[in-house]
């Protein structure tokens, strides 16, 4: 699991309010990217070439614009694209997805590439990153993606409640639940990519998550047998809507979206 990207949670990075160039160069050098591993073929299938184009953008403009560390380039496929792509197994067909804190598009753009059936909204506050995302969406021809510039907590109420809210390397689970659960529909789910801290975070923040309307956290290991280590996902169902500072106002019904999940990953309660 990759949580050691260049920026810490909520870190803006220097110069992030300055948008980058308005378009990507026509030809980009991607010599250090390497060939996609076999696992990428499994994750992306017939969309592998498109995934390769995205990897190329990350390795070139992503690095030039300071969104991806240069040392990440040789391991973009394994540690970023495939690592994120395997979480698609937890997302039902045709779901609406909001990716909070997308950065350079991880995992949101990866999911959009792998799963054209999904309707994905990328929420990212920093202009340099949303410029990159906007341009990547055009270059890759992804008509299933909307980019929204803003902090998650600022766009609550502006977006329809999502079936799934994703996040990778954005914040600790208590803060993350506070940002992400309000963006989910009742019955929807937060899928947080986490590393070795997953169990500790679940235990430490259980009461906070419950107070935010979340159900018990479940740990899933995605991509087992395909990647080593598999990707750790903390899943939290939104059981009721909680208006910040107020009591809950609605409960999940039996026909909630949580009953439609793919759920092929191994899971256990944390
Ligand atoms: C460490 S980066 C991770 C980026 C990407 N998810 C990845 O895994 O490479 C954290 C991202 O979260 C964004 N972020 C921080 N606070 C946020 C908030 N309140 N709402 C939405 N995004 C936020 C930052 O701008 C940054 O792009």
TrEMBL record:
Family matches, as InterPro entries: rRNA_ssu_MeTfrase_G, SAM-dependent_MTases_sf
Protein's GO biological process: methylation
Subcellular location: Cytoplasm
Record SUPFAM superfamilies: S-adenosyl-L-methionine-dependent methyltransferases (SSF53335)
Bias kind Low complexity: ranges: 245-259
Enzyme Commission number(s) of this protein: 2.1.1.-
Superkingdom of origin organism: Bacteria
Residues involved in S-adenosyl-L-methionine binding: 101, 106, 152-153, 168
Sequence ranges of Basic residues compositional bias: 261-270
GO-annotated molecular function: methyltransferase activity
Pfam families per record: GidB (PF02527)
UniProt-annotated stretches for the region Disordered: 1-37, 245-270
Cytoplasm among keywords: yes
Chief subcellular location: cytoplasm
Record keyword rRNA processing present: yes
Keywords assigned by UniProt, alphabetized: Cytoplasm, Methyltransferase, rRNA processing, S-adenosyl-L-methionine, Transferase
Enzyme class: transferase
HAMAP family tied to this protein: 16SrRNA_methyltr_G (MF_00074)
Similarity-based family: Belongs to the methyltransferase superfamily. RNA methyltransferase RsmG family.
Record's function text: Specifically methylates the N7 position of a guanine in 16S rRNA.
Name by which UniProt lists this protein: Ribosomal RNA small subunit methyltransferase G
Organism: Actinoplanes subglobosus
Gene designation: rsmG
